[in-house]
Amino acid sequence: MLLVSEPIVGEEEKAALADVIDSGWLTMGDRVRAFEQAFAEAHGAADSVAVNSCTAALHLILHALGLGPGDEVLVPALTFVATANCVLYVGATPVFVDIESADVPLMSLADAEARCTARTKAVILVHFAGYLPDREAWQAFARKRGLMLIEDAAHAPGLRQVGTFGEAAAFSFYGNKNMTTAEGGAVIARDAHLLETIRQARGHGMTSGTRQRLNARTPTYDVTMLGFNYRMNELQAAIGLVQLRKLTAWNEIRRALVAQYRRALAEYCPSVTAPFAQPRTSSFHIMPIVLPAGANRQEVIGKLRDNGIQTTIHYTPVHLMSLYRELFPAVRLPRTEDFAAREVTLPLHPRMDAGTVERVATTLARAVQAEATAEAVP
Ligand SMILES: *Cc1c(COP(=O)(O)O)cnc(C)c1O
Q1: Closest by alpha carbon to 13, among 232, 238, 215?
Q2: 152, 243, 285, best to mutate for ligand 1 pocket (most atoms within 8 Å of CB)
Q3: Residue 225: how many other CB atoms lie within 10 Å
Q4: Mean pLDDT of 330-345
Q5: Total-model pTM
């Protein structure tokens, strides 16, 4: 089965893990610190904080920014549920915003503007599929309204522009992301003081960690704020250090595969559209396509599966999930809903080559064609 994504791990990661075991120190220590510095450097940032997931990273950012009950946070609904969940974690209210269009399925600035109230405090931008929104436009909007800008950069590691939009950015190293630590995440923040607050809140709000106390003369610590246990461990950091060295090359392969996909789709299945037709800075995290209106998506997905090709859907919109329907029953986002109903995500990862892309595109063309023919029969 050709998978939508797969982690690329091998001998180097095994050796790095063996080194951690041999070192006798498994919990957050020198490797986590080295990973934080290397990750920051890769993004042109002064420092970063490593955590055990992007969800934890988002929670820490919202917590450290002081968002809470009574505050509204603008979020896209075309995202993974964690983007909205983290708003609920701090007691604030997520306000769902529609996408711009099926071609640019990023949060619409006009709709964000329309949904602003006196309680709106922040915006969480999601770099959907790896493509970056218009930074200057969002910064101007945030300045005008006095809003904080937060990046959910789970799809976009390895781009220098990421982490420069606003207050802070959250990254994910889950197994299906552009680089992985099995589970893991990181935070980059503009303000060094904010980043240090996040660093302390990551470890129970303690003033020092176990590893630091090993080298200190006084073995005590204080707790000066409410914190969490969102630490990364040495095994994760060891994998992360290896993966980070390959990230740029992997993102380049992704770019070439996406260009190949665009050519092949235009040639074999012109009724299918690929969003982001215009060039835009991207880490090319996933390959979303939009089926023609009226096509039976389940049939197309089934035909691809019969041919050994896995597909997924990005995403079932968050406001349509049962939990969120119950909490916010009145939300209507027509462009998001239409996009999500027709979207299919094709396989995209650096182990693929031009031949694999060709096979997916031709198989998709047959599936869509068979679908259209079946529809035509009365
Ligand atoms: C994967 C993902 C997350 C959550 O990442 P975890 O590391 O699994 O917590 C959040 N937001 C988006 C957009 C994601 O794709």
Answers
A1: 238
A2: 152
A3: 13
A4: 98
A5: 0.97
